[in-house]
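One-letter codes give the sequence; the fold follows as tokens. An example follows:
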Amino acid sequence: MNKAELHIPFVTFLKIFAALLIGYCLWILWSFFLVIFLSILIAVTLHPAVTFLERRIPRWAAIAVVSVLLVAGLAGTVALLTPSLTNQITDISDKLPQLQKQVLDQLPVGGSLREFAEKSLRNLSKGGKWMEEIATAGMTAAGGLAGFILLLVLAIYFLVDGPRTYDWVLAYLSPQNRVKLEETAKDVSKVIVSYISGQFITSVLAALFVFAVLLSFKVPGALVLAVLAGVFDVLPVVGFFISFVPVCLFALTVSPQTALAVAALYVVYHAFENYFIVPKVYGNRLEVSGLVVLVTLIIAAEVAGVLGAIAVLPVVASYPIVERIWLAKYLRPEALKNHQGGKRAPYHPS
């Protein structure tokens, strides 16, 4: 009986080694690639403004105007909010034990609600440093950390040199794939612009609503809680609960009736945002399963933190475009129609 011999070419081992090496490098440099990706998102979002100004002035001048307005807007916002935020954070840090006592005094002894409040308060005050960390983060952003500056510089650089780099990549592709990539880039850029600009609008509206409600009910730390609500509004579903708990706890320091009123208004606004504001702001660009978004969000947050969760959302929203243009021939027509919301036909290059 002849024994079967397994022969594996040496080239196969080299390919496996190269793949492992590339994977290891990507794992080591994931934070750098995340910064690159976020800067590309910013550049793509600013590109329509540059294109609009380019009709009237040279491209370099259009990029300069957009860059100056972006930096000035960010610097002005930070300069406007930082003093009040710092004062409120310091005040809350100093009065945190007193605020905790006020919350617990409003709740009956025993019961699941009091147990939940005690656990939430322990988490909020864990180590006694959470407010200081927020203050440090705010001051760091105000001071302009190297990473934040790098993000803006890279975004501006992509605006300047992005078209030439894009043409350089296209040169490696066949004519058919070149048409596909151009169509993909066109549609994905629309998704990115819709996502970034839409999320900016919804976050600002959420922050303004929370600030107005808390200020009208005289809840302490209104500005801090409003900023947190705007920041966490970026995260679908999860962000609502992250910002909802501290808002209710701080409202409890005023009275249980205030907490109930604030909670009710918060829930109503969240429903209004999901079913009215988001469709109006985003349009039909981000048609992705909510379950897919939630699962992807959790995985990305575990791997790369909040920034990773933010960065992964436009990627998920762009998948239907990639599927329509690049994967249509591998999928059943019914599946493709369902994934595209029944609104777009499979891609056929002319």
Q: What stands out?
A: The chain has a mean pLDDT of 80. The chain has two domains: 13-111+128-172, 175-350. Residues 175-350 form one domain. DSSP finds twelve helices and no strands in the chain.
